[in-house]
Amino acid sequence: MRIWSWLTPLVLSLALAACQRESAVEAQTVAAATPPPCKLRVGWDPWEPYQYEGADGSMQGLDVEIIRLIGGDADCELEFIRGNWGELLGRLREGETHVLMAATPTEERRAFAHFSPAYRSESFALYTRAEDADAYAAQGLAELVADERRIAVTDGYYYGEAATQLILGEQTGKAFVSAPIVELNYTRLAGGEVDALLDDPFVAAAVLRRKGLDQRISRHPLQIHSGEVSLMYSQAGVDEAVLKRLDRALMQRKTDGSLAQLIAKYQN
């Protein structure tokens, strides 16, 4: 009986220690499986039907639905921050804004941003006043620039390599009139301040309908494919682990077809 009197507490102590070790290992395993908190500031500028504020004040549009889908899959909380594109690029560079939607990867942007896998393609079209449509129909962008026509563009937008060379050219660049927001270009075109503008066809359709300009402004035959667009992440503001979570979520949605279904909803 004396043997059991000291052996029993020892056994109990060893069993308790083993349980504590198992609990600690289990807690560590759960902690490792639980992603760290993720809160992202997503920059947006009015660009219907991709990103815009609805009548009820809620964020809407194709790109908004996509980032919400990806953010939800990656367990990230999103806060939408409005600004014009040029301002948002500056905020992203400083880490004040974490993500921008529908961004074309360029060497200049890679200096301060990471890019997700591409998630949709993007193109631009040329628009003129209706009364000038026939006169300009046979001319491409370079010909219009050579004829000293004034072309409206938006600050910070990428319109494809050929158009960018014209916009940045020492002489040809003088033909381009830049605006901080897209809708200002339509006001300038309707008012005769510029001769044409470049914009995404889906955005143009929404702006022309909303402003009642669909009879005064016509689409030119020129179509510019600017390339594939991605989510653009701030190098200064987005942790690499979070970036990988977002990219995994995006690739999963591409693989299972749900991303293509969402895009098709806006194209049909």
Automatic annotation (TrEMBL):
Solute-binding protein family 3/N-terminal domain ranges (all copies) = 39-268
Q: Which Pfam families match?
A: SBP_bac_3
Q: Keyword set for this entry?
A: Signal
Q: Does the keyword Membrane apply?
A: no
Superkingdom is Bacteria
Q: Which family does it belong to?
A: Belongs to the bacterial solute-binding protein 3 family.
Protein name as it appears in the record: Amino acid ABC transporter substrate-binding protein (PAAT family)
Origin species: Sinimarinibacterium flocculans
